[in-house]
Amino acid sequence: MGWNDTYDMVCGVEVHVEMATKTKIFCGCTTEFGGEENTHVCPVCLGLPGVLPVLNREVVNLAIKAGLALNCQIAEYSKFDRKNYYYPDLPKNYQTSQYDLPVCQDGWIEIETSGGMKRIGIIRAHMEEDAGKLVHSGETITTSASSNVDYNRTGVPLLEIVSAPDMNSIDEVIAYLESLVQIIDYAAISDCRMEQGSVRFDINVSLKPHGGGELGIRTEIKNLNSFSSVRRCLEYELERQADVLDEGGAVIQETRTWDEGRGMTLSLRSKEEAHDYRYFPEPDLMPIVIDREWVENIRQTLPELPAARRARLVSLGLSAYDAGVITASREMAVYFDQALRHFADPKMLANWVTGDLSALLKANNAAFAASPVAPEGLAEMLSMIAGGEISGKMAKEVLQEMYATGKTAGEIVQAKGLAQISDEGALTRIIENVLAANPKSVEEFKAGKDKVIGFLVGQVMKETKGQANPGLVNKMLKDMMS
């Protein structure tokens, strides 16, 4: 039996998002990823004696923008606090964060579940500084003999988004995270490069008896950085907790880590409560007063968010599935809209964007933003198909050539002689020859065997090396045999 035969899961997620500012939250050091260890640092982010922080206004702008995108209330009065704990990657021995007066509260997003749309609450979103990074000698912290510390990431601005414990299945957790990251990406709050640690997930999960009962003791699994890791981690942790409960034991409230290689969670430390951090107001930073004009000015900069974009694409005639595929990637959605300005058939455009062009990009490990085929270039090629200048089959060859060379569809068609023959006069003699060479097929057609038309069209296409307009050939064959 699996855990879900006996228990219900309850899950909430804390998502840490590195905000897309050029400089850190309290100093002028770069937030650029990478660089030689401990070179993107200064006395402020290293926490040296005698320095004072200065708040980066763009951090507040992005926090407000994220809050609006997540349907949050934006606080008129907000402040920073010191979260005190000792860890090698925290040079000040406290983290400047927000505790009782966060910048954003009481938000929500909607996710699609097997039972329909479900609203997931967002308790709060608050600003804080990132810590440094431990560079372990082994695969993970639990298998390492030593660790070095790189403080380049220290002071990079974070937005911590805390969900309500509203998720009751692994699929709901993944749907929530995918939707949240999409919104953050669309609103340009972060570059959302999970492989670089720009978005990290802390999962709080517990089990309770089927159908009710008190909430179980939760564990927190920290620093997951991919949807697949979250899924595998939850699959393991839920079975682990169920085994403990089935044997009459008690789940311990603790912080655990996910070992990707071994496919299991491992205990790190007992879970701290808020009072363990001895929060107190940050004396070196003024409170933040946010007037409504500031909020409304930020609201004007919000782009079209994923749900609204999906609805618009469906209103243009796309299926919900196609609209979902296109909007799943902001880059693909932007590319699609740019191409749509030059080619007005959304369905045909969607087929090529999500089909052949996506396949080419994937095969070359490239993103839509770096596509050698520009949106207007794809639109030109599709216009040539719609106008009968080339066939769909020819277009596949043309697209590959466009991708490889950067040439336009018109240049390739002209250079390779790929133009589709749509001139009835030019086709008449070829069709007459095909009919004369296949009298038995003509008789079968006249006797009512319509399927033979496919064979005759194929013969004409063969004679024209695939350049005849198949729709026109089909019509002319029927007319001439009748």
From TrEMBL:
Pfam families: GatB_N, GatB_Yqey. Residues 334-481 form the Asn/Gln amidotransferase domain. It catalyses: L-aspartyl-tRNA(Asn) + L-glutamine + ATP + H2O = L-asparaginyl-tRNA(Asn) + L-glutamate + ADP + phosphate + 2 H(+); L-glutamyl-tRNA(Gln) + L-glutamine + ATP + H2O = L-glutaminyl-tRNA(Gln) + L-glutamate + ADP + phosphate + H(+). Keywords: ATP-binding, Ligase, Nucleotide-binding, Protein biosynthesis. One of its GO terms (molecular function) is asparaginyl-tRNA synthase (glutamine-hydrolyzing) activity. Gene3D superfamilies: 1.10.10.410, GatB domain, N-terminal subdomain. It comes from the Bacteria. Its EC number is 6.3.5.-. GO terms for biological process: glutaminyl-tRNAGln biosynthesis via transamidation; translation. InterPro entries: Asn/Gln-tRNA_amidoTrfase_suB/E, Asn/Gln-tRNA_Trfase_suB/E_cat, Asn/Gln_amidotransferase, Asn/Gln_tRNA_amidoTrase-B-like, GatB, GatB_C_1, GatB_Yqey_C_2, Gln-tRNA_amidoTrfase_suB_CS. Allows the formation of correctly charged Asn-tRNA(Asn) or Gln-tRNA(Gln) through the transamidation of misacylated Asp-tRNA(Asn) or Glu-tRNA(Gln) in organisms which lack either or both of asparaginyl-tRNA or glutaminyl-tRNA synthetases. The reaction takes place in the presence of glutamine and ATP through an activated phospho-Asp-tRNA(Asn) or phospho-Glu-tRNA(Gln). Heterotrimer of A, B and C subunits. HAMAP family: GatB. Belongs to the GatB/GatE family. GatB subfamily. NCBIfam families: gatB (TIGR00133), PRK05477.1-2 (NF004012), PRK05477.1-4 (NF004014). This is Aspartyl/glutamyl-tRNA(Asn/Gln) amidotransferase subunit B.
